[in-house]
Design a protein that fits this description.
Layout lengths: L1 H18 L1
Length: 20
């Protein structure tokens, strides 16, 4: 579960960075 959350957070940050 932790891995999933970590990956989700990473994707969120990456998405935000790309969107910026």
């Amino acid at each position: 579960m932790i891995a999933y959350q970590k990956r989700k957070l990473e994707w969120t940050l990456l998405s935000r960075f790309l969107l910026t």
